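Practice problem. Given the sequence and the SMILES for fe (ii) ion, write out the predicted structure.
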Amino acid sequence: MTVELGNFQIRTRVVFGLGGISALGVTAKETGAERYLLCADPALEGIGIIETARKALSGAGLSGETFVKVEPEPFLDGADDAAELGRSINADLVIGLGGGSAMDTAKAAAVLITNEGTAEDYIGLDKVELPGVATIMIPTTSGTGAEVTFTAVFTNRETKAKGGINSPFLFPDVALLDPELTVSLPPDVTAATGMDALTHAVESVTSRSATVFTESLALASIRLIGENLRRAVFHGNDIEARDRMLLGSLLGGLALADAGVGACHALAYPLGGFYRIPHGLANAMLIPHVMEFNLPAAERSFALVAQSLGEPVEGLPSRLAGASAVEAVRSLCSDIGIPDSLFDIGVPRADIPKMIEGALTVTRPVENNPRLLGIEEAQWIYEQAFGES
Ligand SMILES: [Fe+2]
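Answer key:
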């Protein structure tokens, strides 16, 4: 659904291109910073990427510290620890290097350096009072779009609830995207993170807050991901496919930053919080079922999705065209090895009521969803995702 245009602004300077990591020093210097905190994904240790980043920074005359204790599906206290390290060295720049976990930790640390309290105090919308220090995000997966969004998502270690710090102060200053950095991603991570990116784009198209701008960005993202995700999964060294995927992920991130996501993200959160299922995989396993559920409420949007996925929908009524988008995404999931059932990844079916309760508290995505999502509807979608098991 496309609603009347409000306003649209890209708050982050985007630098995109092969070898872009070598520009990190100059880019950091341009922010006026002298001391950096680098929040890096520990999976990057040993493959030279963290070292390359550090060298680029020291070559430009910056000093700093590296925080590598970033956990997958990060806990709130990780952001507090990163911020403490940043404060201890008077960091005036925070760099996120990695997937969504590293970037979210970096975005939160940047505002925790300048604001009192802990990350938990800022979970919600518009709770951050002061701007943070400068930030540069360098994604090494093509998935979250976190390099251009105003959200950082964390899990509460005690309650297992997942929630986001949402504030305009979290928009990164610079997104530095270098496709070369994504080449070493293994096939399963490429598949899951790529499906997260596709989910952002699909949910942006069907969002109740969609505009002509977000729709254009999201449809371009869907086309790029549809054309290149299989190639990136099956041939990780295909630099053109990696380049297109990173661009697709970026465009999906720009769309979601304005249009918001929907039911799939709400329903995926408890899977991450309770069972540590990676965010991308959780979305990948739910999105075909969420699309099927949403189809009657957003036929035109799904027809556009189908067209962007290259489905032969010319002349078809929008319901049929939209249905082919659902089938195309199902085939994509199957081709790239996304498991069929939540049962296969160790989620207990008996926990559905607990998962529903968790999902329905994620208010913004639930409100953005084109079809009303209540207890029965959430139950239906989770049941589909378990299948016959
Ligand atoms: Fe996501």
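Check your answer against the key. DSSP finds 14 helices and nine strands in the chain.
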